[in-house]
Amino acid sequence: MRSKINRFFLLFLFLNFASVASAQSSGGGSNYLLTALAAIAVFIVLGAIVMVSDNLLKIEAKESGADKTGTNYSIFPRFNELFGGSAPNYVDGPVTFLKKGHDILLQGEAAKSTNDGSNVTTFAVQPPNFVGISPIPKVVVEVGDEVKAGDPIFFDKKRPEIQYVAPVSGEVIAINRGAKRSIAEVVILADKEMKYRSYDVPNLADCSREDLVNFLMSSGGWSFIRQRPYNLVADPVDTPRGIFVSTFDSAPLAPDLNYIVDGNEAAFQKGLEVLGKFAPVHLGLNAKGSEAPHHAFTQVEGASKNWFHGKHPAGNVGVQIHHTDPITTSSKVWVAGVQDVITIGKLFSEGKFDATRMVAVTGAEVENPQYVKTYLGANIEGLVKGNLKPLEEGKSIRFVSGDVLSGKQTSTESFLGYYDDQVTVLEEGDQYEMFGWLLPLAPRPTISGTFPNGLYPDLKFQANTNTHGEQRAFVVTGQYESVLPMDIYPQHLMKAIITNDFEKMEGLGLLELAEEDVALCEFACTSKQPLQSILKQGLEAMRDQ
Fold first, then answer.
1. Beta carbons within 10 angstroms of residue 279's beta carbon
2. What is the pLDDT confidence band of residue 65, given thresholds at 50, 70 and 90?
3. Are 367 and 477 in contact (CB under 8 A)?
4. The whole model's pTM is what?
5. Per-residue pLDDT for 1 more than 70?
6. Is the peptide bond before 236 cis (omega within 30 degrees of 0)?
């Protein structure tokens, strides 16, 4: 009915226009009318030609794969190119400017100094750190066994070819179990002098893909390659569309990867060469810093560089994938961390499984926040020993393996997560403020405009774990969308997960996300919803399907 009315209205306008034109023609104005109509026709034809040419150019760039470099293959400039921020002078490629996000500035950033890690004597590999692994993997060592760094200690019964190996040499002193007799951790008391398993390293120049995969799986290097979607250890059968490595971390108090890679440039480059044998490698670089990233990142060979400028979560590899080459239902990509790439590189350049890690010990409750040079899976107590501030009466502290947004709560008796390179120590939020929501007496990190935080953009906070409210109705606020720089509607996605609507989950972008990507949304949530847990639930349900 509405379309008929619209057509009638257009016909009415045309008849009126025709009558006016006839009147003008009778008055001697026909030349002006014909000229105007001809000009309009020429404009429409030229516009159509330009639009068709622009679309053909984009199609050609997509088919050739050139669009994945981030270059704008279009006749028309992008919005960011006209009105976006300007890139620093050190940037040598296209920049993605992210307008959404939020930086949480906390006290306790690690200084550029390194402790030798002599206080850390025990290390562990924890099967629960690996998404999708069997709760009870096959453990191939026993308490009392002596192992070298690189010796297998367990494997997944569903994928027995992938070996999980010892990060250090020493004695296996415990195999701890969790709920339903699941394997929680395999603990090793490290030798004072490290011993390494020897390998027959294949020649990268002429080895086959099969030989390369088999070597990485048997040596422990494969465990560092994770696959999106689902963030699980990569399937060796799959061929990824690309491999992504983020060279900066924008999370609160995150370690400076420029400091960490210093001295490991050759190993990092070698690791990228290994990954490049499987698929094109994409590096995400920081275009927001006052100084250029480390030359190990900017002068890398055999990988494409993608620059990003924005607030957290700009450093998340998931965000970088979304803006470089988004994940689809039929595609898979692999990701790896900078220190993981270094370990892979040393496997080939030095022939040993060197799981050395630079761990940032951070937080306002740390006396001297600094870096500790240790090994993968280090004991938390050894990392913070002698470096904690005296506790005030009535207060307690929390230890987090990772950053405060996406890390896991732990204790001094536990160990650093397999993929973590940061420990955060902060005050426990068990001291409640009366009417704290009404009378904000102490400054705190928040995205809310009710606090004058915007007047002090460089102010660093001494935060605690108090959520300042309990879980409540899941209301639509628009807060998630304001801090997630992805073309995803997280509010609708979370509700689709809760209602177990698989079609909506997939359509709303579930496969593009990992838990860390929605951590900032959880921080901003007025409803205090556990968004990371909800997302994990959705990913597990989708993977089971």
1. 17
2. low
3. no
4. 0.85
5. no
6. no
CA dist list (Å): 156 to 85, 136, 147, 151, 235:
48, 8, 19, 15, 13
Give the torsion sign (CA, 41, 43, 45, 48): negative
Give the closest residue to 334 by CA, choosing from 239, 407, 415, 261: 239
Spell out the residues 6+ positions from residue 272 whose beta carbon is closer than 8 angstroms to its own.
Answer: 245, 281, 300, 301, 302, 303, 341, 345
CA atoms within 13 A on the CB side of 241: 15
Q: How confident is the model over 202-211, as pLDDT tens digits? A: 999 999 999 9
Q: What is the pLDDT of residues 358-382, one digit of tens each?
A: 999 999 999 999 999 999 999 999 9
Distance CA 31, CA 21 (A): 11
Strands 114-115 and 370-375: parallel
DSSP letter string, 153-174: EEEETTEEEEEEE-SS-EEEEE
153: alpha, beta or left? (left if phi > 0; alpha if psi -120 to 50): alpha
Identity (one letter) of the amino acid at 415? F
Report how far residue 137's alpha carbon sits from residue 126's, in angstroms, rounded to the nearest whole number. 11
Beta pairing partners, 375: 356
- The pLDDT tens digits for 174-185 are 999 999 999 999
Cα–Cα–Cα angle for 53, 59, 65, nearest 5°?
Answer: 135
Angle at the Cα of 479 from the Cα atoms of 475 and 484, rounded to 5 degrees: 130
Is residue 486 within 8 Å of residue 520, measured between CB atoms?
no
92 Cβ partners below 8 Å, 6+ apart?
Answer: 298, 305
**69: pLDDT confidence band, cut at 50, 70 and 90?**
very low
Taking residues 288-315, what's their average pLDDT? Answer: 96
Residue 223 has pLDDT above 70, yes or no: yes
What tokens were used for 377?
A: 């899976």
- CB atoms inside a 10 Å sphere around CB 456: 11
56 — pLDDT class (breaks 50, 70, 90) = confident
How many CA atoms lie less than 13 Å away from 51 in the CB half-sphere? 6
Residue pointed to by tokens 């050395």: 356
Phi and psi for 257 in degrees, rounded to 5?
-70, -20
Phi, psi angles (nearest 5°) of residue 301: -115, 145
**End-to-end alpha-carbon separation of the chain, Å?**
44
Which position has the token pair 């440039």? Answer: 265
CB atoms < 10 A from the CB of 448, how many? 12
The tokens describing 541, both together, are 């349900």
For residues 243 and 275, is the Cβ–Cβ distance under 8 A? yes
Q: Round to whole Å and give the CA distance between 433 and 431.
A: 7
**Six-digit token string for 422:** 């940061």
Residue 155 has phi, psi (to 5 degrees) of -150, 160
Question: How many angstroms separate the CA atoms of 287 and 92, rounded?
Answer: 10
Helix axes 30-64, 2-26, angle to 10 degrees: 140
> Among 378, 369, 383, which residue's Cα sits nearest to residue 416?
378
